[in-house]
Amino acid sequence: MPRMSQNPPSLRPDLAPAPRFSEPARPGQPTIGMVSLGCPKALVDSERILTRLRAEGYAISPDYKGAEAVIVNTCGFLDSAKAESLEAIGEAIRENGRVIVTGCLGAEPDYITGTHPKVLAVTGPHQYEQVLDAVHKAVPPAPDPFVDLLPATGVSLTPRHYSYLKISEGCNHKCKFCIIPDMRGRLVSRPAYAVVKEAERLVAAGVRELLVISQDTSAYGVDLKHEEARGHRAHITDLARDLGSLGAWVRLHYVYPYPHVRNLIPLMAEGLVLPYLDIPFQHAHPDVLKRMARPAAAARTLDEIAAWRRDCPDITLRSTFIVGYPGETEDEFQTLLDWLDEAQLDRVGCFQYENVAGARSNDLPDHVPEAVKAERFARFMEKAQAISEAKLAAKVGQTIQVIVDEVDENGATCRTKGDAPEIDGNLFIDEDFDGLAPGDIVTVDVDEAGDYDLWGRRVLQGA
Predict the structure, then answer these.
(1) Which of 231, 292, 327, 371 is deepest in the core (most CB within 10 A)?
(2) Which residues are annotated as a binding site?
(3) Around Cβ 278, how many Cβ atoms within 10 Å?
(4) pTM of the predicted model, to two decimals?
């Protein structure tokens, strides 16, 4: 069988699936490599850059040696992510020599060039034109209009059966531990009709699951005053309903817990969108939330969670948390553990607080020692794992739908409606998987459960 996933303890919350490249270059075609780091939002940026380059006649190389230049799309979310980005830039310079840097860390060009002065150019996040200009200078385009035909859906870095759908850029929040608004700016929503049109193209091309992403999905359309244009209103509830009418699975990520989120729950109960909410709660103690500059409403959040589950009993709730935030006391951390006991979240990720250059939290007093952070992380994940194990054990004996991600000689790796790609668990089918292919949606009887994964038997038609 495929290995059991190690989600979520081994994963940072800012990581996206590794990009996949497969299309070979034609003789004489200019080639560009791409290293895409960071979150799914950055992965979408990489797809947009590569789509533009493919339209101009460039081929995409899956390795350094086959590329005439390499673009590194960086992450700057945490200091560890910045270090990873610098390491990736260094590797690209060693292996290829001609490197263009973009993405969130590109907002700090001196930080990059101070370590890697040989980079050809540095651009900030979603600065597509500047990236293209840098590529044109490094590797002049040589399009062949009779050969270089671009699919209507553009270049995708994920498997063909699912796709990320970015609905906005930026964020209006000022959380003290986060510098994303400084790098990506304030909220800028895409028109709803443009989002729906892109989704229609994706579904027509065979995408079976749309993963809706932004920095703050709940706030979608606020900057547009929720205007309606071309028959589509820029509001997350209306957008979710429109996307749900396309026939694909629709999964909502990064949903800030505003009161109007409760209006999404009936759509989940009706089956229009998946019964899945990814909500970054970050902590539960009101004083910690206040120091984070986040709404201190943990008690009311428990009431909201209870109401969501009342109206949609099958809902899966995922969240991420920070332990060891500056000033966090043992009592405050215990409040978080007690809250988690009561909330019984289905999917939980956690990371230990670390300073990020430019974040206001760096200046807070009473930073927590690293050893204490690590110990609290271990205690938190132990409780989260126990909750996950019990939740999954309760699914044994149920009949559910799953989507197939991969098939090999040992079996099929699938996901339930409660599992997002890469960050959540899997369901494995190790019998009667002949004929299955990625993107198939099949019915299974769950017959075994682990800490984060399930196993099941395919329900065969006529059986």
Answers:
(1) 292
(2) 39, 75, 104, 171, 175, 178
(3) 23
(4) 0.79
